[in-house]
Design a protein that fits this description.
- This protein is an alpha/beta fold.
- The chain contains 8 helices and 12 strands.
Length: 239
Amino acid sequence: MTQKVLIVDDEESILTLLQYNLEQGGFQVTTAMDGKAALDKALLHNYDLIVLDLMLPELDGLEVCKQLRQNKVLTPILMLTAKDDEFDKVLGLELGADDYLTKPFSPREVVARVRAILRRTQTTIEKQQEQQVEKKVIAIGDVEIIPDNYEVFLKGNQLELTPKEFELLFYLADHKGRVLTRDQLLNAVWNYEFVGDTRIVDVHVSHLREKIEPNTKKPVYIKTIRGLGYKMESPNKDE
């Protein structure tokens, strides 16, 4: 089945170039040149991935990303930014983007990144399906993870997680009690070196803590191991 990609950029030359290269790569491409049009299309139609520019008229890329996640659209998002601005990148990841590229970039690099994101998504789904028989539910304290349904519950209430948040939480829970370095988490969840930038792990851990921890300043589920990384524990575990 042909995978569908929505490209959003207000520069017609970039839009045309990306559309041509992705179509040559076998993708079915839809385009939009402003944030409002992109949001409308993404809410109305199902896409396998969205390539989203940060600086857009009507609504900027961050707002589009935020509103999509608020509307429970969990389609993977590759964010494009002309700014070499760490704040924008981190904020984009916090709002639910899965990856980002800084302009200028080559069309081939975009196609490769799109394929990598889609491959990771499919691999994760397949892994969860393989584990259905042995691992129907992972319960840690008040948190319940149902891998085959991609669902997480806290005290019986379902949580809304992005695909990357779910994958990170599942990996931490599946290795409960083990200290995992940022590099291990980066490679396990993102499946490749994220430009050597492990801050993406910290961003997603912070986001997860906001959703599952009773007190984010004193986390009882996802604990920071100073100088090493993170580990997940039951909140009632004796230390």
